Amino acid sequence: MNSEISMTQITARSTGFSFQLARSAAVIGTVVLGLWSAQAQAAEVAVAVAANFTAPMKKIAAEFEKDTGHKAQLSFGATGKFYAQIQNGAPFEILLAADDTTPEKLEKEGAAVAGSRFTYAIGRLVLWSAKAGYVDDAGEVLKKGDFAHLSIANPKLAPYGQAAIESLTALKLLDAVQSKFVQGENIAQAHQFVASGNAELGFVALSQVMKDGKVVEGSAWVVPQNLHLPIRQDAVLLANGKEKPAAAALLQYLANEKSKAIIKSYGYDL
Question: Is residue 96 part of a domain?
Fold first, then answer.
């Protein structure tokens, strides 16, 4: 009798274990299938990013991939150069410009999706030196002219370079300092000239020298916004990105609160 009871218990336990094992396998299979489905739906999106937005966009792209599974392939450069590349068939799906005129132009020319354009950030121009105490908080260093080289981005290609020219014109200093210009193709190169010591100071994007609301090194003067036209930075869905879920998802992600917090931490206005 005891033997029969033991065998019954063993059989029952075996049956129960088999049931649990089968159920676990089914759950694991469902999870794996879900992961496989998510990966199958995940896609890549090719994004042309204005050089000033490099640091925040790298952060946003990392969060975007974690939250959606989609991967943003980022290329950084001057807005004017991206415009020419897009006109020549470059396979970008989104443009994050350093101005609002280039995306508008692309829309009018049919190279971007009409109605997809919006302002993702308003940039701030800063006069910056890698040396602590070199640039005063009123920009008087420009009037003194006690420097050999002043770095700016190419104003024909880079909106921050154009803003620098406008600011110097408003200050009536353009003629006095123009011979000292060291010109970068884009704002990243203009920043590098100063960071490397090839120029004592230069006009760069605040986002390049600020993190978490503070200038991380050197000295800086944030140029008053009334000295130049607003640096409105627009995003636009390009023709190649039409009907691409990953492209639409990234544009939506740029406008969410997480992205806005990252953008603000680098000194941009919204």
Answer: yes
